[in-house]
């Protein structure tokens, strides 16, 4: 095996792929790769990016994917879509990689709600599934796609006519009982010895496009734990997985779905110290796992993060000090993070400032090491910053007249403080 575990995330543009990236990017055990069949956010997220991968429905996919695995010496793969995971599971050994939670029987059951409900039809927490509309004794009911996820394509039907209409509009429909109560997700982890080492329930309080944007942690009650243990006993899990529950009219929990992949909002568990993607890497290395839970994180809030594709080649970063790198006596986090990122990418960094005090003293007071800068240019009010700017550079300054002058005189990209976040990886 490689000195580092070489991990491929495919497809790498989804929310769950972003969570895997954030969870593994700083691990000393991991070299991270991303691949996608379509042009998406993965290109700006993953430094080691592989594009133009054939769709899994394409006849050339298997050979192409095997070549990617071989060319990059990939050890393990996270599949971030249920259908992709279901496709790769029976092929992983032949294609030459370890697939996280890639048992073929498990992915088949988890991908199909009809198979899931049938497997657990002897459990009180499995919802009633109706073979046809006439079998429904009490309305409303629910029509959902057998291969759906994230609540997509779900229709609440209030009578037989609505049910028939929804069934005709749904590919591979499943007709099940209506569950009116609250909904939770339970993030889980099963190790290489089939032991359930983590189960963490969380709410789905604000949902956008099937993604939980606000989650509050709730107690792992004995009934939820029993459901998790039963699923783990009947489905061959290994790695991170999750299931969703909803309360029935009588207040009891009922199963909505199971998934063998990382969920985007598993970031909630990482916020409290449970890094599920990293646990999968450690489990791949056959290490016994001990979750260390921080109970002082009651909830998480999420929003949309934006990154920009920047197609300008540059060697130097020129950055201002006052109200740019330091604002109101405090370091600007996004700017200092970008400077360290640029330094790591081999860029030269020059501090250029009209600061009215001793620059080294100000940097020291702000806890910024002067060694971060390849040069410090301290100019007076008469001099123009544009006179000191090199070619193949970018310029960061909060003051519009300065940016305007550099843009006109030097013809290079200029950035205000608010734009720097778009360049962070």
UniProtKB/TrEMBL annotation:
It comes from the Bacteria. Keywords: ATP-binding, Nucleotide-binding. SUPFAM superfamilies: Glutathione synthetase ATP-binding domain-like (SSF56059), HAD-like (SSF56784). Gene3D superfamilies: 3.40.50.20, ATP-grasp fold, B domain. The keyword Ligase does not apply. Residues 113-285 form the ATP-grasp domain. GO terms for molecular function: ATP binding; metal ion binding. This is Carbamoyl phosphate synthase-like protein. It comes from Caballeronia fortuita. The lineage of its organism: Bacteria, Pseudomonadati, Pseudomonadota, Betaproteobacteria, Burkholderiales.
